[in-house]
Design a protein that fits this description.
single chain; about 190 residues; alpha+beta; Glutaredoxin; four-stranded mixed sheet; globular
Length: about 190
């Protein structure tokens, strides 16, 4: 069964998972953008003060040998809807992985705010036409597809990003990649 990797571009934990998920999972996952603010009962990490969350993410990035993070000026940003509509459009045209990695890197390696300009820059990096992207950002059908993906994730049991769903099992949070990798290894051993 193909794993599903749910992400929101505003999550630094999802960024770190995105940098590893293709290499670490023994099965290539489907990348699905969701709007984390739309998850019911979601765990946001807001109980942890932002400076402590930053320190934990920076420590994890160093352990993963990811370049040091440059934080967007508006982080933590709750409203990532524009970026996630862009990611949904990218998925619709077969560029979900390339766009997501480009946008994550703009935000957390480049320190850029996830606004319309950053969405266009990330899109251009993966050969998406800027005018088409700007038009897609205003299309109700693309926004509806994002809402549908978020609802599907919620029904599957996702409460936070990153999340990897394999069959009926949900692996979430900073350790999602490790948990999903271990579950797939156990599944392969028992088969």
């Amino acid at each position: 069964m193909q794993p599903v990797f749910y992400f929101d571009l505003g999550s630094p934990e999802a960024y770190l998972a995105a940098e590893r998920v293709m290499a670490d999972l023994p099965v290539v996952p489907e990348w699905v953008p969701i709007y984390a603010a739309g998850l019911p009962g979601r765990a946001t990490g807001q109980a942890t003060p932002p400076h402590e969350r930053r320190a934990a993410v920076e420590e994890r990035a160093a352990a993963q040998h990811v370049q040091p993070l440059r934080w967007p000026a508006d982080w933590p940003r709750e409203d990532t809807r524009v970026a996630m509509v862009g990611a949904t459009y990218a998925k619709q045209i077969g560029r979900a992985v390339a766009f997501a990695l480009a946008a994550f890197r703009q935000a957390f390696a480049g320190g850029r705010v996830l606004d319309e300009d950053t969405v266009v820059i990330a899109a251009a990096a993966c050969e998406m036409h800027p005018r088409a992207v700007l038009q897609a950002l205003g299309r109700r059908s693309v926004a509806a597809a994002l809402d549908a993906a978020t609802a599907t994730a919620a029904v599957a049991g996702v409460t936070q990003v990153p999340a990897i769903v394999i069959g009926g099992a949900v692996y979430e949070g900073a350790d999602a990649v490790e948990q999903a990798t271990a579950a797939l290894a156990r599944e392969a051993t028992s088969a």
